[in-house]
C-alpha cells in the first residue's frame, strides 16, 4: 500500500509542475505545466510575489480550486494547434481570481516585460496578438445545441477537459474580478482560434466582473450558452468580434465597452440557438467605439444571425465608417425582431465624422433577410456628440485601455 500511495503521489505531482527560477526583477518566475487536479493538489494558490509561466494546456480539473492573489502576473508561452497554451477551468473546477482596481490580475505572454505592480509593460502594444491561447471557463449550465454537452472550440476533441454544458443553471465556476487578459488567441486550426475569455455553459453561481481583454487575435469575449452575468467588461483591439454570443446564452452583460483596433471586425456577433432550447440575453449600458484613422471610422457595428435573440439597450456607437452597418442576416432573425424576441432600444449614434454613406440610424441598421421590412420606425439619434446613454467609464480607470486614452467618446 505504501508503494502504491507513493506512486500515485508522484504521478499527481508530475501532473502539475512548479519550477522556480530568478530573473532580473524582484519576482521569482514559477513555471506551471499540466493539471491542477483534484486529490493531492486539489487546492492551489498563486501568489503576487511570483510571476507564473504557463506552458501547454493547464487544467483546473473537476473538484479542484485554483486561487490567484490580487496583483499576480501570469505569463503564457506560445505554441500552436494542440500545443497552444491556455488556462482551462473544466466542469466541476473553480478559479478564484479576485483582483482589485489597485492590484488587477494580469494574464499575458512571456514576451511581455510587465512585472507585478505594473498595469502596462514597456515593450508590447495592443497590436501584438495570438501570442498564446486564452482563459477558458467551462460549466454545467444549459446550452442550445444538438446535445446537452459539447466540446469547446480551441480544445482538441481528444481532451475531455474541453466538454461543457448540462442542466445545472446555478453551476459555480468561481470568481473572475479585476482580471486583464492580453495578447492571446493563438491558432488551433484553420478558422479555429481561442478567444480572450471563453465561457462555455457557465452558470449563474459564477461571478464575473471588471474584465479587460486586449489584443486578442480572435474574439474578446465569447459565451456558448450558460447564464452567467458579466459586469464592467472592456475589449480593445480584438482581431474578430469584441462580443460573440452563441447557443442561447441567457445572462446579462452590464456596463460594457468595445474599442476597435485596426484589425477588428464586428463589435458584436450574435448567433441564435442551435437546438430546441430557446433563450436570449441582455446587454445594457454600453459604449462601442470604431477604429479611427485620419478621421475615418472603421470596423463593423454588429451582425445578428441564425435566429438571434437578445435585448440590447442604452448603447452609444461612434467612430465607424460610412460602410459600417448593423445587420439582420436571415429570415429567422428578422422575424424575431418583428416578434419582440430581438429588441434594440435607446441607441445613439455619433456619425459626425462622416459626410456620406451610413449616417442615419435608418442607413446603418439593415434587414438583409429575404423578407426585409423589419425596421419600419427607427428613430434613434444619429449625430450625437454628447451621449445620454452608454457605459460608465469611471469603472474602467484601472485598465490599460483607459490609461492608453481609448475610452473617451
Notes on the structure:
This protein has 409 residues and is mainly β. The protein has a single domain, classed as Pectate Lyase C-like. Helices cover 8% and strands 37% of the residues. It is built from 4 helices and 28 strands. Strand 1 and strand 2 form a beta hairpin. The radius of gyration is 21 Å and the shape is globular.
In short:
This protein is mainly beta. The protein is built from four helices and 28 strands.
For the CA atoms, what is the radius of gyration?
A: 21 Å
Outline the low-pLDDT stretches.
1-25
Please tell me the CATH architecture by its name: 3 Solenoid
The end-to-end span amounts to 67 Å
Q: What fraction strand? A: 35-45%
- Oligomeric state as shown: single chain
Q: Would you tell me which CATH topology applies?
A: Pectate Lyase C-like
What is the highest CATH level, the class? Mainly Beta
| Largest sheet report | 24 strands, mixed
Number of strands: 28
Q: How many individual helices?
A: 4
List the domain count as a whole number.
1
Please estimate the helix content. Answer: under 10%
Mean pLDDT: 89
Task: Write a concise keyword list for the protein shown above.
24-stranded mixed sheet, 409 residues, single chain, two-stranded antiparallel ribbon, Pectate Lyase C-like, mainly beta, disordered N terminus
List the SSEs and their pairings.
Layout: H1 2-15, E1 16-21, E2 29-36, E3 43-46, E4 51-60, E5 65-68, E6 73-76, E7 86-89, E8 94-98, E9 105-109, E10 135-138, E11 150-151, E12 163-164, E13 174-182, E14 187-189, E15 192-193, E16 197-200, E17 207-214, E18 221-224, E19 230-236, E20 243-246, E21 252-259, E22 266-271, E23 281-289, E24 300-305, E25 310-318, E26 326-328, H2 331-339, E27 342-350, H3 361-364, E28 365-367, H4 400-403
Parallel strand pairs: 2-4, 3-5, 4-6, 4-7, 5-8, 6-9, 7-10, 8-13, 9-13, 10-16, 13-17, 16-18, 17-19, 18-20, 19-21, 20-22, 21-23, 22-24, 23-25, 24-26, 25-27, 26-28
Antiparallel strand pairs: 1-2, 11-12, 14-15
Amino acid at each position: 500500500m505504501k508503494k502504491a500511495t507513493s506512486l500515485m503521489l508522484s504521478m499527481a505531482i508530475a501532473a502539475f509542475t512548479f519550477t522556480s527560477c530568478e530573473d532580473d526583477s524582484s519576482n521569482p518566475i514559477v513555471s506551471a505545466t499540466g493539471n491542477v487536479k483534484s486529490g493531492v493538489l486539489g487546492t492551489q494558490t498563486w501568489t503576487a510575489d511570483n510571476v507564473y509561466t504557463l506552458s501547454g494546456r493547464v487544467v483546473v480539473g473537476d473538484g479542484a480550486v485554483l486561487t490567484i492573489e490580487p496583483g499576480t502576473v501570469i505569463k503564457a508561452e506560445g505554441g500552436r494547434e494542440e500545443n497552444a497554451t491556455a488556462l482551462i477551468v473544466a466542469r466541476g473546477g473553480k478559479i478564484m481570481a479576485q483582483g482589485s482596481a489597485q492590484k488587477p490580475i494580469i494574464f499575458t505572454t512571456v514576451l511581455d516585460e510587465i512585472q507585478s505592480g505594473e498595469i502596462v509593460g514597456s515593450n508590447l502594444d495592443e497590436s501584438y496578438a495570438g501570442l498564446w491561447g486564452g482563459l477558458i471557463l467551462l460549466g454545467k449550465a444549459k446550452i442550445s445545441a444538438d446535445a446537452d454537452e459539447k466540446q469547446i472550440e480551441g480544445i482538441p476533441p481528444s481532451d475531455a477537459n474541453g466538454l461543457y454544458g448540462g442542466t445545472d443553471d446555478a453551476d459555480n465556476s468561481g470568481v473572475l474580478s479585476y482580471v486583464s487578459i492580453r495578447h492571446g488567441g493563438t491558432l488551433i486550426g484553420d478558422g479555429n482560434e481561442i478567444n480572450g475569455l471563453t465561457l462555455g455553459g457557465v452558470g449563474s453561481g459564477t461571478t464575473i466582473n471588471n474584465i479587460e481583454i486586449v489584443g486578442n487575435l480572435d474574439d474578446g469575449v465569447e459565451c456558448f450558452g450558460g447564464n452567467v452575468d458579466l459586469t464592467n467588461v472592456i475589449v480593445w483591439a480584438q482581431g474578430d468580434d469584441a462580443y460573440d454570443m452563441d447557443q442561447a446564452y441567457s445572462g446579462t452583460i452590464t456596463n460594457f465597452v468595445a474599442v476597435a483596433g485596426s484589425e477588428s471586425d464586428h463589435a458584436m456577433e450574435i448567433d441564435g440557438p442551435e437546438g430546441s432550447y430557446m433563450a436570449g440575453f441582455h446587454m445594457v449600458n454600453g459604449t462601442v467605439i470604431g477604429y479611427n484613422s485620419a478621421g475615418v471610422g472603421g470596423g463593423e457595428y454588429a451582425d445578428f444571425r441564425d435566429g438571434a435573440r437578445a435585448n440590447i439597450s442604452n448603447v452609444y456607437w461612434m467612430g465607424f465608417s460610412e460602410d459600417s452597418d448593423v445587420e439582420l442576416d436571415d429570415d429567422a432573425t428578422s422575424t424575431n425582431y418583428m416578434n419582440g424576441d430581438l429588441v434594440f432600444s435607446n441607441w445613439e449614434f455619433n456619425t459626425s465624422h462622416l459626410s456620406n454613406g451610413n449616417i442615419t440610424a435608418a442607413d446603418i441598421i439593415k434587414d438583409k433577410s429575404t423578407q426585409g421590412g423589419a425596421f419600419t420606425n427607427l428613430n434613434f439619434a444619429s449625430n450625437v456628440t454628447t451621449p445620454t446613454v452608454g457605459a460608465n467609464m469611471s469603472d474602467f480607470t484601472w485598465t490599460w485601455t483607459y490609461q492608453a486614452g481609448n475610452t473617451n467618446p
